[in-house]
Amino acid sequence: MIPKHSVADTHPPTTTTFPILTSIPPQPGHLSRHHSPFTVSTFNGFLPLTPPLVDLPPAFDQLTSLLERMPIRTLSGGPGLLAKFSFGATLLAELPNLSAEVACEIRRGDKRVLSALFRDYCFLASAYLLEPCHERKCKGKEEGYGLGRQRLPNQVAGPLMGLAEALGHKPFMEYASSYALYNWRLEDPSKGIEYSNLRLIRAFEQGLDPSSSEAGFVLTHVDMVKHSGRLVRGAVEALDGCGKGDREGFDEGLRTLVEGMKDVNAVMEGKSSVFERKAGINEAYSSKANLDQGMWKRSKPKDYHSFRTFIFGITKQSMFPNGVVYEGVSEEAMDFRGESGSNDSMIPLFDNLLEIVMPDTPLTEILKDFRSYRPDNHREFLEWVKYRAGDVGVKGFAMGGEQSAALYLHALNQVRDFRWRHWCFTREYIIKKTSYPTATGGSPIVLWLPNQLFSIYHHMFEVENIYPNLRSCKDVMEVVHDQRKSLEKEVHKYCAERCA
Predict the structure, then answer these.
(1) What does the alpha-carbon distance between residue 345 and residue 353 come to, in Å, rounded to a whole number?
(2) Residue 154 to residues 87, 151, 161, 292, 388: CA-CA distances in angstroms?
(3) Among residues 134, 121, 183, 135, which one has the least CA distance to residue 326?
(4) Cα gap 244→368, rounded to integer Å
(5) 85-144, pLDDT tens digit by residue?
(6) In the predicted model, is pLDDT for residue 3 greater than 80?
(7) Cβ contact 379:170 at 8 Å
(8) Between these two residues, 100 and 364, which has the higher pLDDT value?
(9) Which of the listed residues 92, 168, 446, 489 has the most CB atoms within 10 Å of its CB?
(10) The dihedral sign for the CA sequence 468, 471, 475, 479
(11) pLDDT for 443-455, tens place per residue?
């Protein structure tokens, strides 16, 4: 059975609180058996509760061996199986069907082990299915990716489906559970989650080298999400304050949100965070160091397409026109969306809390579909925030006081800043580099992000109309008005070029 998750809004939660971990239980065994690694917490936010498990149990040594030899460049620096276009054949020759061993681990119930197995089988599946597309690109054949493999062999499909059902995931590469947020380790555990201390566990291209663009792409996401604990805390505080009619508590929650999101955006761009500035360690961030910290420098636009091939999904992709058959599971072809940063939970948290309404378009339907590609507890928390915000009337409460309205506008502005920067990355990394029209998650590459950005502009204009003279907001709104005009021109330009 394929795990199915409803994205409908027909059964809203009615509780006034949501169970969020505020401290790590003293017994790690209790944590791994009773809590999903992706249980929302105020200390790690949307990151796993503890660092992802690196090593699989000995019964899976053959799986580990394949994954270590798989990348285009292995940890030793030599060419791997994908560099030789021999991964698929090697997998079929060497990998036994470990469904019985997977079932044994499912019965044991250690969710860290199950999550590590799910991550690793996802890497096997994507590498196997998309290796022919990688070969086509490397050999300089005509534009496009050609066809991927249309059938996933049972020794991958069976275990992957079993793990997906046990964990509540889709049986395909996901952002949180596979490629990004459960795919990092600490070089020195005593130093904690600092970017220089992060390493990838699995990679497709050169990602096992921490200086590579693949590593920079994934680990910068981890570096951003490490700030999400404050976002969770701020959202809960704002909802609690609003529900009690406590404007001071509501405003404090919004301040926590805004400051936390400023740090997320600072990591993305390559600037010192609010926390670091308050801690007085600005000297660690000279202007050159700033440039070295952001996505632009950690992951070069020119390198992105050397690993992007492997994070495509099946849905809406030309490589899989009829879906993929999961052998031994079903002879009916299946399709799933690919890995996408749009499946991160931070921006949806803001959308739901601030009651941001997206336009009724097919693009918004894709946004709703993305909800089912998040870990269960993330999705449940986000749904609770949405319905609780509607119950207590967050937006209306914010408009009831000038200071609250200003903080609400600044929160919207942080969302705008993030989505605008995401659009800039998309433009430079993808739109200017390829004519392929579809993003890895199956959304249209030119129209997807502008759909959300125009909605944010609209909500910011609404606040401006109610409070046209908000202090500290004049400069913000000047940027918004100019940026909206610029985005309209860019979208028109790229649509005209691609439709010509």
Answers:
(1) 12
(2) 16, 9, 10, 44, 43
(3) 121
(4) 30
(5) 999 999 999 999 999 999 999 999 999 999 999 999 999 999 999 999 999 989 886 668
(6) no
(7) no
(8) 100
(9) 446
(10) negative
(11) 888 888 889 999 9
> Is 258 in contact with 336 (CB distance < 8 Å)?
no
Give every CB contact of residue 244 below 8 A, 6+ residues apart in sequence: none
At residue 286, does pLDDT exceed 60?
Answer: no
What is the model's pLDDT at position 179?
A: 96
- Distinct helix (H) and strand (E) counts, the chain: 20, 5
pLDDT at 288 over 70: no
* 115 token code pair: 């999550």
Q: Report strand pairing: 151-152 vs 324-326.
A: parallel
Q: Which residue, 453, 259, 277, 468, is CA-closest to 351?
A: 453
Q: How many CB atoms lie within 10 A of CB 433?
A: 14
Token pair listed for 161: 């489906």
Mean pLDDT value across the chain: 89
Contact present, 222 and 182 (Cβ < 8 Å): no
Q: What is the reported pLDDT for 432? A: 87
Q: How far apart are CA 446 and CA 492, in angstroms?
A: 10
For 170-267, strand residue ranges (E) read 184-186, 198-200
**Would you say 399 and 466 are in contact if contact means Cβ atoms under 8 Å apart?**
yes
| Tens-digit pLDDT profile for residues 222-268 | 999 999 999 999 999 999 999 999 999 999 999 999 999 999 999 99
Question: Cβ(112)–Cβ(246) under 8 Å?
Answer: no
Query: Which residues on adjacent β-strands are paired with residue 438?
Result: 444
In whole angstroms, what is the distance from residue 207 CA to residue 195 CA?
A: 14
Q: Which residues contact 374 (CB under 8 A, 6 or more apart)?
A: 174, 176, 343, 345, 382
Q: Write down the pTM of the prediction.
A: 0.90
3-state secondary structure string across 389-429: HHHHCHHHHHCCCHHHHHHHHHHHHHHHHHHHHHHHHHHHH
